[in-house]
Write a structure and sequence with these properties.
about 80 residues, alpha+beta, 3 strands, about 15% strand
Length: about 80
Amino acid sequence: MPVSAASDPQQAIGRAPERLTLEQRLALVGKFIALEIYTPEALPLRRIEAIGDTVDQCVEQLIHRKHDPARFEFVRLGPPY
């Protein structure tokens, strides 16, 4: 049986929020995600780089992965519909 976002939200790291399945999106409702901020110098792909219950958890994950948290926006996921 494959691991789903319901049992391990980290499975959504690297995926675009629009590409999450309905099951994954429902499992992540209320969680914060980190997306790289668009700037004219950088046209980042809209990929989830961190997931957590708080922004602080997202920041910790970004630092652990050697990313600068100042280059990310933090969005709380709502229901898909």
